[in-house]
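Lecture 7 notes: from sequence to structure.
We start with the chain below.
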Amino acid sequence: MTQRYIGIDFGTTNSAIGVIDEQGERLLPLPSPAGPVETWRTVLFFDEDGEVVAGAPAIARYAEANGQGRLLQSFKSHLASATFNKTHVNGRRWALEDLIAAYLRQLREHSPIDLGTRCVVGRPVRYWGAESAEDDTRAVERMGRALALAGFTDAHFELEPLGAAARYATTVAREEVIIVADFGGGTADFSVVRVAPGGNYASEREKAEAVLATGGLGVSGDAFDARVIDEVVAPLMGKGTSYDVGFGSDTLIPAWLFHKLRRWHHIPLLNEPATLRLIAQIEHGAQQPEKFERFLRLVRDDLGLWLHQAVERAKISMSKHGDGQLTVGAGIDLDERLDARAFDQWIAPDLSAIGTVLDEVVLQAGLTPNKIDRVFTTGGTSMVPAVRRELERRFGAEKLIGGNELVTVALGLARRAEAMFHR
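Predicted structure tokens for the same chain:
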């Protein structure tokens, strides 16, 4: 029987599966309309007939549905929450664990190999929104139940940065002390790790001795996108403008409406009856109706996905070329240039928070920045120039190393599975 070691990187934004078997180490291809891909968006689409579709096929089905059905995303960001337990879709109650299990089952079904029941699953150092050990325990327990529902009855958790460290260890020729800087969609995690050539922390003792410090915060790619929403999108949709509340009296449109635009999974919440009544009142009395019409179209046609994809494209363009164009059609009709220098100013508080945690992690390890041999970056946000400059300023540009930023964790988790389960 083929011995396989499976690593699952279940991310806020993207997910991937790594495997080690007789064919070697690789990412498992997953289907998409454009052909096989290494990562799937962590999304579910529910059509009006009750069918549930995950990943890249879900986005394609959503695009074909012309606003019919419901798209859910960012489930991982709710895992630590004590207040979010369930949602209702097409008249059916879905617990958070059920949603995640539905996604994982389709990962399993669309995998080109049998994934079995045993795997190693990544987890952040600090789950998004977790403010206590109780919150963190809640997140792990929920994720464990979801894995079991999806058939992974022998699932083990590993810190995502340690997965990345295990992957990096395959490239070193001598022992090094590194920082793994893992920038996901919802969290940024940092670990100071001692790695040896080919090292894979075969025992818990080895692992404990190798991990010198860990830290994390709920700031990463989604937070950067939110800054673009706040500074560019929301004002063009009516933020800061007024509406007539009757009797010749005007008041500002409530800012909390636009705050919901900052995250994909909050936009559908605007379709609650009480909120829709308020929106109708604002529509009737808007002082700048051409702006608020964009907001109306976004909410009524459920175009949050297209908005956030456009923000992400513009952000990637800024990372590569120094500026970007934020273009959203579908009746919203936004076409705005994003200036990289302005973007750096918008995300300055986030960069400061990241820098503070980095400093704390190095101090916790009993080191100084000059004692760090390498900074191994993973996750798409690690490619944002301002983030790289923050790392370079502390540790030196020559110490930064990356590559395969979007899939490193999944491959490293497969290596951790090999270390845990090898017989």
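Points to note: The mean pLDDT is 89. Residues 304-321 form the longest helix (18 residues).
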